[in-house]
Specification:
Blueprint: E1 5-9, H1 13-24, E2 27-36, H2 42-49, E3 55-62, E4 68-76, E5 96-99, H3 103-112, E6 116-117, E7 122-125, E8 128-134, E9 140-144, H4 148-151, H5 157-170
Parallel strand pairs: 1-4, 5-9
Antiparallel strand pairs: 2-3, 3-4, 6-8, 7-8, 8-9
Amino acid sequence: MNVNHIGVTVGDLDEAIEFYSAVFELRILVGAETATRETAGADRRREVFGERWREMRIAHLADDNDTGVELFQFIDPEMTAPQEHFDYWRIGFSHLAFTTPDLDSTLATLEAHGGSVRTGIHEVEPGRRISYCKDPWGNPIELSSAPYPAVHPPATAGERAAAQDVADHEH
């Protein structure tokens, strides 16, 4: 299996389409559309979002690997922003991550389009750098200079055994 897409709720769909396509070079598959209880797919959406759902705007974007980013702006019920946008202690998704060949340039582009940088740049493996940011609506985003397996290389059998030995002696 592969990751198919992720859904992100934003405060302004038109601005989000511009932000995500400009900063992360996502292509627009389906631009801004309005979905209500009267439009096609209403029964499916009511089942997904519940009886309170009445109206939203939605757009579909994708990266070069065809992984999608589905953007939502809910109109009814009205959206509320959490008091703190990185509720890492809550169960659920904590962030969205993108791989970029030029971390410094992407950080500058992100800030130029209304996003902000949350952390410094950290080298987690030799030549492998990451930084945490947020979009203009506070959604947490990680930027990585290398694909996931290069940033988090699989442990060898010897490393796994050594880690297990340490864990066994700690308990």
